Design the sequence.
């Protein structure tokens, strides 16, 4: 933005200067009464106006194209992010659905076990069981497939074979070991009521069936509903993402839009760029830019209002229109473009800001000095070319004047570049020398080549902007005004005659030379000098003075921007330091000294964690709950970063607190889940595995809350410890956790891990995978390793597999080996 304003200001000043010079020329033509030259002047004006209009239109189109590209890139990134979120949403929904089904079967089995041995089942008992096991309906079906007892009285006597929906569960009556779960649908009783059912065998009576209402099912899956996905997908200040299916909106930041047709909100879609897919449209959101992509059953639309997408274009083109009022100065366009490119290179200063350098402003002075020296050196080269072309007769300049001025300009304008080879350009006083030399050189040229050099006084003011100092810009302008006045008056008596001065000679009563020749007498004339001051010098000076506040504003704004960047960098460094401390605190809370119990010879244990960010959501823990029982925990919190770390700390404290109360593993997780579900506004949850390991007998009583299945080593081979996981901690209230038991013999081992191990990704977007993990563990040189050697070996294999790809998730592992009773 600043660079574009800088360029626009330069063009604007050139146009105003050129307009004034042309007006003087046209006035002179009018005095002479030469009609042909009048027509030439009119055509020249038309040409300048056309050139300005073309320049403005080209700039407008380039800015529009830049804004379109920026908007397209931003929306494309959001579309890719949305596709990733949809994929994760589907995966989470499948996982939650499976966990919900497993939970329903667990409850059905528990109710069946509670009812075994009873001869009669009254509705009051079943209603009490609904409350106790947190289900909505319970039905008892006899071996004739007739409902004999239920919490819904009108279902009594209903034949399960009378409808396809209910007939689905009849095979359980023939195959007692069969357990069935059915998705929510219209029930066969009235084909209107919607329920989800799970059923298991009830020995001696038939089977027991439990049911959930749609509200219960929705409560479980609401936090992964596709409807909520677009709420967090903002684009810029007011852009948004819409997810549609079949032309209907499935997800939108505005809830009232969900369920409406896309055509009612977005209309008149027209392609702007077929390559990127950028389109324009109208509708509820006004004039917008949009992009869309199909992803499976969904169509994803990214939308940005045109007012926001084209804000920079509108601002810059308005400034350009105000600054470039009349005419176009062709001679200095190439120089201005060069200056613009050099200004853009100053963006490397941002690198210094990011690196946290505190001497950024002194470094900027060095760069500004080098830039000024480079521009002056380029000008010296142009002077040499002009000298050669004039000597060869290709240019119509006065040869004597050029022979005098060109060597001076070449030497003076090359001096800073030569000086900076031997002297440091960062000296704070060097800028005064460079700019003074540039002003003096331009003034010298203005004395002897006054017809062509007045516009060159712009150069020092433009160069002063690069020092980002309002004061220095004003000092430079003051010096330029003084030198311009002196050189203008000196040029009247020493330099090439400027034909624009003829109008002043006529007004002062002196005879003008014919056809632009010098007047017969260059003597002191008060009236002419007054005219020269008021009609020639002051308009030029006024243009420079009017240009100076803009240059000063650019200098001040850029200076403040750099100062703010330095401040922001320090703030980022402070936050980084605090995160580093948080990392140390988090690491120090986990057991990190191995071996942790050197006096206990019955087992060997080792663990390690490597976070993806400064702080992570994984954790492990182990501690004795009594003399012979060791609690082992590994867990993975949803999400990453500071929120996950805080939730991790709470989960760890709760688990450890309840474990030290000598509760069973299922009771520990039940109480932990109750506390985590209280006021869980963030919707975070944690998968965890907890085992109570008796180091005397080798028995492990464990419970799995949605965590990865551990691997157990028996007979020199690792295999999965298969036990159906329960629901995650913090995901749903009133969850009952099932406890399992296994035994380790001397030499057996247990390997626990988080999904960061199997989901580690390489440059080809391939996962490390469960298969690769178990294959590694069962390799001949790995399966026999103790935990303290096994875990580092796995970590190295993951790094080798990743091939330098960035770690996307926390990687946590824990290994324990049972050594048996010491001899």
Sequence:
């Amino acid at each position: 933005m600043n660079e574009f304003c800088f360029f626009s200001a330069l063009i604007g000043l050139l146009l105003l200067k050129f307009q004034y010079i042309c007006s003087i020329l046209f006035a002179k033509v009018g005095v002479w009464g030469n009609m042909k030259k009048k027509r030439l002047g009119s055509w020249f004006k038309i040409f300048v106006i056309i050139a300005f209009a073309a320049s403005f239109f080209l700039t407008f189109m380039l800015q529009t194209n830049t804004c379109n590209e920026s908007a397209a890139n931003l929306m494309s990134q959001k579309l890719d992010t949305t596709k990733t979120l949809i994929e994760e949403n589907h995966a989470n929904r499948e996982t939650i659905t499976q966990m919900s089904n497993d939970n329903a079967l667990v409850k059905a089995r528990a109710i069946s076990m509670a009812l075994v041995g009873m001869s009669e089942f009254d509705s009051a008992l079943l209603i009490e069981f609904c409350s106790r096991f947190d289900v909505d309906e319970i039905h008892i079906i006899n071996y004739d497939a007739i409902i004999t007892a239920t919490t819904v009285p009108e279902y009594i006597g209903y034949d399960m074979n009378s409808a396809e929906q209910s007939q689905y569960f009849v095979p359980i009556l023939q195959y007692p070991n069969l357990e069935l779960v059915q998705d929510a649908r219209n029930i066969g009783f009235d084909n209107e009521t919607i329920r989800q059912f799970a059923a298991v065998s009830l020995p001696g009576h038939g089977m027991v069936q439990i049911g959930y209402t749609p509200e219960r099912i929705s409560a479980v899956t609401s936090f992964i509903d596709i409807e909520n996905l677009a709420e967090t997908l903002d684009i810029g200040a007011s852009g948004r993402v819409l997810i549609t299916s079949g032309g209907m909106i499935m997800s939108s930041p505005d809830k009232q839009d969900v369920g409406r047709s896309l055509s009612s909100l977005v209309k008149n879609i027209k392609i702007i760029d077929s390559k990127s897919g950028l389109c324009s449209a109208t509708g509820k959101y006004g004039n917008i830019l949009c992009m869309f992509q199909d992803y499976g059953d969904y169509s994803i639309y990214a939308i940005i209002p045109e007012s926001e997408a084209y804000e920079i274009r509108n601002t810059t083109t308005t400034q350009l229109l105000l600054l470039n009022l009349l005419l176009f100065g062709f001679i200095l366009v190439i120089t201005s473009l060069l200056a613009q490119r050099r200004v853009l290179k100053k963006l490397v200063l941002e690198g210094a800001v990011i690196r946290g350098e505190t001497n950024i402003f002194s470094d900027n002075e060095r760069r500004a000095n080098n830039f000024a020296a480079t521009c002056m050196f380029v000008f010296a080269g142009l002077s040499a070319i002009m000298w050669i072309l004039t000597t060869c007769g290709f240019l119509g300049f006065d040869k004597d004047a050029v022979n005098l001025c060109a060597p001076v300009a070449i030497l003076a304008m090359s001096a800073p570049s030569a000086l900076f080879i031997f002297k440091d350009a960062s000296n704070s006083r060097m800028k005064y020398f460079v700019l003074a030399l540039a002003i003096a050189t331009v003034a010298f040229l203005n004395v002897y080549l006054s017809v062509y050099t007045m516009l060159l006084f712009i150069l020092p003011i433009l160069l002063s902007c690069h020092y980002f100092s309002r004061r220095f810009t004003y000092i430079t302008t003051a010096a330029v005004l003084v030198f311009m006045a002196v050189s203008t008056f000196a040029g009247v008596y020493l330099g090439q005659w400027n034909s624009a001065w003829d109008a002043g000679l006529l007004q002062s009563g002196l005879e003008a030379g014919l056809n632009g020749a010098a007047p017969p007498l260059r003597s002191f004339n008060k009236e002419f000098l007054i005219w020269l001051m008021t009609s020639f010098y002051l308009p030029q000076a006024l243009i420079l003075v009017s240009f100076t506040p803009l240059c000063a504003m650019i200098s001040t704004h850029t200076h403040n921007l750099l100062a703010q960047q330095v401040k922001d960098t320090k703030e980022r460094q402070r936050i980084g330091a605090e995160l580093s401390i948080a990392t140390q605190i988090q690491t120090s809370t986990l057991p990190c000294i191995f071996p942790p119990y050197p006096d206990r010879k019955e087992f060997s244990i080792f663990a390690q964690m490597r976070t993806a960010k400064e702080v992570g959501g994984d954790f492990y823990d182990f501690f004795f709950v009594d003399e012979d029982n060791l609690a082992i925990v590994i867990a993975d919190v949803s999400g990453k970063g500071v929120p996950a770390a805080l939730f991790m700390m709470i989960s760890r404290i709760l688990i450890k607190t309840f474990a030290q109360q000598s509760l069973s593993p299922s009771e520990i997780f039940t109480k932990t889940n109750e506390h985590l579900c209280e006021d869980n506004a963030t919707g975070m949850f944690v998968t965890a595995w907890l085992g109570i390991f008796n180091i005397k007998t080798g028995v492990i009583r464990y419970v799995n809350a949605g965590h990865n299945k551990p691997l157990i080593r028996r007979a020199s081979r690792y295999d999965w410890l298969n036990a159906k996981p329960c629901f995650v901690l913090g995901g749903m209230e009133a969850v009952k956790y099932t406890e399992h038991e296994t035994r380790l013999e001397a030499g057996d081992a247990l390997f626990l891990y988080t999904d960061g191990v199997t989901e580690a990704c390489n440059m080809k977007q391939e996962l490390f995978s469960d298969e690769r993990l178990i294959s590694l563990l069962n390799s001949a040189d790995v399966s026999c390793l103790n935990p303290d050697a096994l875990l580092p070996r796995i970590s190295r294999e993951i790094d080798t597999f990743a091939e330098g790809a960035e770690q996307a998730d926390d990687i946590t592992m824990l290994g324990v080996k049972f050594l048996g009773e010491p001899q």
